[in-house]
UniProtKB/TrEMBL annotation:
<keyword id="KW-1133">Transmembrane helix</keyword>
<comment type="similarity">
    <text>Belongs to the zinc-containing alcohol dehydrogenase family.</text>
</comment>
<keyword id="KW-0520">NAD</keyword>
<keyword id="KW-0862">Zinc</keyword>
<feature type="domain" description="Alanine dehydrogenase/pyridine nucleotide transhydrogenase NAD(H)-binding">
    <location>
        <begin position="181"/>
        <end position="258"/>
    </location>
</feature>
<dbReference type="GO" id="GO:0018467">
    <property type="term" value="F:formaldehyde dehydrogenase (NAD+) activity"/>
</dbReference>
<feature type="transmembrane region" description="Helical">
    <location>
        <begin position="180"/>
        <end position="201"/>
    </location>
</feature>
<dbReference type="InterPro" id="IPR036291">
    <property type="entry name" value="NAD(P)-bd_dom_sf"/>
</dbReference>
<dbReference type="GO" id="GO:0008270">
    <property type="term" value="F:zinc ion binding"/>
</dbReference>
<feature type="transmembrane region" description="Helical">
    <location>
        <begin position="207"/>
        <end position="225"/>
    </location>
</feature>
<keyword id="KW-0812">Transmembrane</keyword>
<dbReference type="InterPro" id="IPR014184">
    <property type="entry name" value="HCHO_DH_non_GSH"/>
</dbReference>
<keyword id="KW-0472">Membrane</keyword>
<feature type="domain" description="Alcohol dehydrogenase-like N-terminal">
    <location>
        <begin position="43"/>
        <end position="162"/>
    </location>
</feature>
<dbReference type="InterPro" id="IPR011032">
    <property type="entry name" value="GroES-like_sf"/>
</dbReference>
<dbReference type="Pfam" id="PF01262">
    <property type="entry name" value="AlaDh_PNT_C"/>
</dbReference>
<keyword id="KW-0560">Oxidoreductase</keyword>
Length: 404
């Protein structure tokens, strides 16, 4: 049986490549596996040989020790792979198919899945609605930053690429379909972006850059990206975004310089609960982004909030933050009739359309997020560089499929 190397969380700041079991069609006990999921049969699953699997800001929350993730939890929810085995209940996928896997695990049978709310499937995580591979409190499905990974409810979850050779040529773009491209796009859609919109995206990490890309694809007139990281702002400017340097203070004044007023139609939070305050050297202030988006989004507008907020944060700045409570100026949002969309992106709502946009050269998501392929063994370096603010999206290449 083939060996299976995987990237595991060890302790705050540390990931390591470890040897794990080759998957079978059963969820076995292991670090972070919910007891109620141990022994769960997965005849509807496929085993994938991983083609590409990306490091995400969501992984970093765990790796920074900001969650209750246990040591040896195998990471990786952004998975693209080749089917090497199909369970007995799989009908429509075949060995050799190349597929993108939404990071949400969804059963395809529950009320929420039937309503395309696959980010809050009711049947895959015994703790709460919603699940993902390789993530704390998500049921314990083993992560895909590995040579091989099990994907449950595979007929429902997998998006098959129409042509294998073409897919491998565009793999650095297509690998973004498992999370950040749909997630950023969802942020833009739920912020109400359409033709002619003015948009502010907080955060120039990969999700922010994907949201900006999504906003441009949706026809926004002006997309402004704010961050305190100069390299990441340069990356945003490289594909036509305006930028706001938040080391100089809040975004309103700089937005006014760009648009003639300190207001945008649409606001996107691509930062989440580890947000820093505005101004040079500001420390963590978890409500900063939400409060400033309420200030600068025009009355009647909408906030798309893909940035992650948690129910518990061992490293929270104060007692309230440790329980996931933030000091929000909700009155501002209420007075302006703003609407809010939070939560996991239901990837399946968007991944096929965005795949078509990639395959037909309508969008260059890999270039916009500065995607970089590295080997699985190099994952610890990738995590460290990404954590230090590199303006790159790291794509792991565990089985050598990626040639460029
Ligand atoms: N909802 C979903 O389905 C989903 C999916 C993927 C990622 N996420 C979340 O999206 C967020 C972004 O992910 P990422 O991979 O781009 O992470 P990242 O950590 O690389 O990027 C976050 C960026 O925000 C910047 N930042 C910090 N404070 C800021 C502020 N006040 N204003 C503007 N920028 C600020 C940081 O400098 C950094 O560049 C994370 O919270 C991640 O967990 C959510
Ligand atoms: Zn992700
Ligand atoms: Zn479901």
């Amino acid at each position: 049986m083939a060996g299976n190397n995987a990237v595991a969380y060890k302790s705050p700041g540390k990931v390591e490549v470890i040897d794990i079991d080759y998957p079978t069609f059963e969820l076995k006990d292991g670090p972070g596996v919910n007891p109620a999921n141990v022994g769960r049969k997965v005849p509807h699953g496929v085993i994938l040989k991983t083609v590409a699997t990306n490091i995400c800001g969501s992984d970093q929350h765990m790796v920074r020790g900001r969650t209750t993730a246990p040591p040896d939890l195998v990471l990786g929810h952004e998975i693209t792979g080749e089917v090497v085995e199909t369970g007995p209940d799989v009908e429509f996928l075949q060995v050799g198919d190349l597929v993108s896997v939404p990071f949400n695990i969804a059963c395809g049978r529950c009320r929420n899945c039937k309503e395309r709310k696959t980010g809050i499937c009711l049947n895959v995580n015994p703790d709460r609605p919603g699940s993902a591979y390789g993530y704390v409190d998500m049921g314990g499905w083993v992560g895909g930053q590995a040579n091989y990974v099990l994907v449950p409810y595979a007929d429902f979850n997998c998006l098959k690429f129409p042509d294998k050779d073409q897919a491998l040529e565009k793999i650095m773009d297509l690998t973004m379909l498992s999370d950040i491209f749909p997630t950023g796009f969802h942020g833009a859609v739920t912020a109400g972006v359409g033709v002619g919109s003015t948009v502010y995206v907080a955060g120039a990490g990969p999700v922010g850059l994907a949201a900006a890309t999504g906003a441009l694809l949706l026809g926004a007139a002006v997309v402004i990206v704010g961050d305190m990281n100069a390299d990441r702002l340069k990356q945003a400017a490289s594909f036509g975004c305006e930028t706001v340097d938040l080391t100089q203070g809040g975004p309103a004044e700089q937005i006014e310089q760009i648009l003639g007023e300190p207001l945008v139609d649409c606001g996107v939070d691509a930062v989440g609960f580890e947000a820093k305050g505005h101004g040079a050297g500001a420390s963590e202030a978890p409500a900063t982004v939400l409060n400033s988006l309420m200030d600068i989004t025009a009355a009647g507008g909408a906030l798309g909030i893909p940035g992650l907020y948690v129910t518990g944060d061992p490293g929270g700045v104060d007692e309230a933050a440790k329980k996931g409570s933030l000091s929000l100026s909700l009155g501002t949002g209420w007075a302006k009739s703003l609407s809010f969309t939070t939560g996991q992106c239901p990837v399946m709502k968007y991944n096929r359309q965005l795949m078509m946009a990639i395959l037909h050269d309508r969008v260059s998501i890999a270039k916009n997020v500065n995607a970089k392929a590295i080997s699985l063994e190099d994952a610890p370096r990738g995590y460290a560089e990404f954590d230090s603010g590199a303006a790159s999206k790291y794509v792991l290449n565990p089985n050598g499929y990626i040639k460029n």
